[in-house]
Amino acid sequence: MKKAIITGCTGQDGSYLAEFLLQRGYEVHGFKRRSSSLNTERIDHLYRDLHEPTQFIPHFADLGDGSSLATLLYEIRPDEVYNLAAQSHVKVSFEIPEYTADIVGTGTLRILEAIRRTGVQCRFYQASSSEMFGSSPPPQNETTALHPRSPYACSKTFAHNITVNYRESYGFHASNGILFNHESPRRGETFVTRKITRAVARIKHGIQSTLYLGNLEARRDWGYAPDYVRAMWLMLQQDAPGDYVVGTGEAHTVREFVEAAFSYVGLDWKDHVVIDPHYFRPAEVDFLQADATKARRVLGWEPTTSFRQLVRIMVEADLQDIGQRVRGGFEQIGAGAHV
Ligand code: NAP
Ligand code: G4F
């Protein structure tokens, strides 16, 4: 049985990847950070009582804590390590840049060093990001110049480069997945797609009237998250490591996402959306659109879900979720309008 470590297993991608690997018979060791309130909602369905046989084994581990990462690595001796943990919010990274650099940048180095010093033979996946392309014009591929525009993107650029460096210096089987935006009903509520679909559901259920947003003109290449965890796994199944751009090749503005989500439930977005400069960023990434030719050719990877299907999946999930919460008396009028 193959063993995998997933850092950031409580996040959107970590939860889908854990499901994907469990379905393929892996023993999955999920690293989660300690928090004062529960942070396991996305993976609760994978838990079994630890006194019973289980293939999903959670561990406390923080990317700020190199010695515990090394200890766990040594004890588990995984075949594959997927580094997904991050302070992953671009706008927040302008507010907590040092922490972002420590977890996203140095945190990646801590894991690579843990692998090197323990001598554990494993393959390594780094969650790189299309944000690293920043102001480089689209379409972006593996040869496009990196011009990061936020502390988050600068930190991901360091993590990306240090992964390449460990591959070249020490012969690691280490690969960067340069993933473009990918979304799902499990997307964090403060990223723009989920913020929109959640607000649409709340407005439809009569508990919110206004949605405050920032820049509607930014263009993103939005795909469906379960497709992207498959690409991560495919990278580690190749004989040779490498770096791969992963995205649909289709870009849409935030405005188009808003229009599609509101019109899906028969609402006119102009009656509800208000622009609030609070959500503007000190520097914006205007246009991301993937050229994923290499991933298609080498990995055989293809996205399965169109932009319209993605919007529908997310709106329907939020309509159902908010509906249940309203009926149960858990969803408050006004709450969540300002995420
Ligand atoms: P996410 O939902 O924000 O998940 C991030 C995960 O990292 C969570 O499990 C989080 O724990 C954990 N984490 C945060 N700080 C940590 C720390 N100090 N120590 C240990 N764990 C920590 O992000 P995602 O959308 O799944 O993305 C997964 C990875 O891909 C991230 O590295 C992200 O930057 C990158 N990425 C994402 C996209 C995308 O469009 N989704 C695109 C390109 C790259 P909590 O649950 O406790 O917060
Ligand atoms: O949904 P977003 O916050 O995602 P962003 O900044 O593109 O970053 C995401 O994708 C990256 C991959 O390219 C990941 F690496 C990263 O971890 C994260 O998952 O914002 C998308 C766009 C931006 O241009 C932003 O300015 O939406 C615009 N936007 C407009 N109003 C807003 C809002 N974004 C947020 N979060 N909230 C708003 O109210």
Word description of this protein:
With about 350 residues, this protein is an alpha/beta fold. The protein folds into two domains: about 5-185 and about 225-245, 3-Layer(aba) Sandwich (Rossmann fold), CATH 3.40.50.720; about 190-220 and about 250-285 and about 305-330, UDP-galactose 4-epimerase, domain 1, CATH 3.90.25. Helices cover about 40% and strands about 15% of the residues. The protein has ten helices and 13 strands. The chain has helices spanning about 10-25, 65-75, 90-95, 95-120, 150-170, 190-205, 225-235, 255-265, 295-300, 305-325; strands at about 5, 25-30, 55-60, 80-85, 125-130, 175-180, 180-185, 210-215, 220, 225, 245, 250-255, 275. The strands form four sheets. A seven-stranded parallel sheet has the order 3-2-1-4-5-6-11, sandwiched between helices. The protein has a two-stranded parallel ribbon with strand order 7-10. Helix 5 links the parallel strand 5 (about 125-130) and strand 6 (about 175-180). Helix 2 runs parallel beside helix 4, helix 4 (about 95-120) packs parallel to helix 5 and helix 6 packs across helix 10 (about 305-325). The protein is globular and about 60 Å long. The model has no long low-confidence stretch (mean pLDDT about 95). The protein binds NADP nicotinamide-adenine-dinucleotide phosphate and ligand G4F. NADP nicotinamide-adenine-dinucleotide phosphate binds near residues 8, 35 and 88.
